[in-house]
Each structure stands twice: as C-alpha cells, then as structure tokens.
Fold HTH-type transcriptional regulator CysB.
Amino acid sequence: MTMAKTGRAYKEITFQQLRSFCETARLGSFTAAAEFLDVSHPTVWKQVHALERELGTQLLEPHGRGSRLTAAGQVLLEMAQPAVTSIGTLTRRFHERLSISVTRLKVVSTPRIIVEDLPECVLQYEKRNPRVQFSLAEETNQEITSAIETGRADLGLTASPGDQDNPRIEYGPGYQLNIYLITRDDHPLAKKRSVRPEDLVDYPIVNTPDSFPNPAVNLQLADLGLFRTQPRRVEAHYAAAIRRYVGLGFGFGLLGRLPNAIPEPGFHERDMSRYFRGSPIRFLWRRGIVLAPAAREFMETVQQMLGASQRRRGPGG
C-alpha cells in the first residue's frame, strides 16, 4: 500500500524515526516500543507514521493487539537495523575508543631541570599513563616561552620569572629549589662546621654574575663582593659547567638544588637557603586554552613529588 506525501511533519528521515520503527517491529507494538525507548506511545506512533509518509508506503499493519511488518517494512528493517544498532551504541563505542586512543603531551624545560629534577617524575608519570605519548625537550628559558606561545609544546617548566604581563602565557606553581654551596671534598669551605655568606668572599666563585634566574639572588651575591675575588679564571652560567669546573678546582659554585638531592661523589654540598632566597620553578602554558587532563596530571605529579620533598626538609635542611 502506497501513501500520498501530504503535509509532512518531518522534513527528512531521522534516527529517532528509524529507531522507533525498528523497536516497534522487534517488540510487536507501539506500546512496547514506547516503554523500551522511555517515551510516550503517541511519540512512537507519530515517528513511525512520519517515516511512512516520507517513504510513501505502509511499513506496519495492525495485528491482534499490536502490529507486524508489511513486505515494505521487512525490506526497510533489513536495511535500517544495522545502522540503527550502530548509531545506538555510538556513544559507548566512542568513549571506549577514546579511552584507548593516544594522547600526546610535550613538555619543554631547561637542561638542569630535565637532568636533575624531572627523571623520577617522568618515570612515575609514564608508569601511571602508559597511553600518553610523552616527550620532553631541552630549551633555553627564552625558547621555552616561544615554544608555548607558538603551540610547539603543551607545557613548560622554568625558573625564569618571565614576563608576567605576557598576554599569551599563563603561569602556575611547580616547586622550590634551595641554594646550595658546591665545593670539592678537599676545599677549605668543605671542612668548616658552618659557612656564612661572608666566608665565601675569600675564594673565587665559578658562577657568572647573572647565573641565577632570580635577580634578587644575583644582586645579593654582587653586594657581598663575590665577583670581585680574584683570580676568577672561569665564569660559568649553566649548572653542568659550574659543577664541572668546581670539580676541576677552579673555585666554588652556588646552585639551585632540590632539598633531598644526593651529592655527587667527590663534591661537598651545603644548603645555604637560610641566607639566600631559593628559586621557584613554575609551569607555563598558553593562555586561553583548557589544559588537557594529561597535562594537568603531569603538573600534579611534579608538584606532589618535588613539592613534597621541599615540605619534608624545609628551608635550611
């Protein structure tokens, strides 16, 4: 039986129409289909009849207290049922696929932070997040900001104060470094029971005058006259270079270190944070974006592991 296409309540075939039709065919009545779909009986009836008007033919016919498929209805059921089933489970399948899909997270930081602070955090993070494709890249402080601004990286970690007024960058807390005196085991400062800032003046410092990201620390060292002590045969800016030349006997160094860091063999390390302000390490990301769960979890991992060490020891060790 064909049906004339008169005033149409629906402009095109919808998923709701097909689903109402398929469930009515499966369950044998509009009432049963409405109960299964958790909608009213008139809603199912209207959707099925709208589908019949769209296709121009009767799909269901009365049968006892319910209904049964016509020949045309059987054809449509065979065509539509796979699609309806597939779309009906789309939400569940989407979330299942999403849960196993690869998430990418790129973090940029300075060589010192990557080498000395982050290894255990990275291992712990990857253990907890095996489906995250994690990458870590070395950059200078200036390059870190650029990488975040341009989207080359998702998250940065830096000791640099940065430009607080940069409209493209957001900052968040990370953890704190204490200032440590680094000498060889045989250096005179290593043999002293206690060391005060004025005790450093008698020996050459390996650091450059601007080696600390915190300008207040650099100014404090300059006010002490540490950079006037001679001979100063080496001026090193980066932690690896400072440590290397301290080990070669060119003087002492001052470095930002985690409170629970284990001294390297042959070196004497002394926490000087009671005299020198520590360096805060901060996260940065592009302003205006919503941080992905993978990025937030990495931040939390670092804050918990490295911030906890600061709380256990406290300033001055």
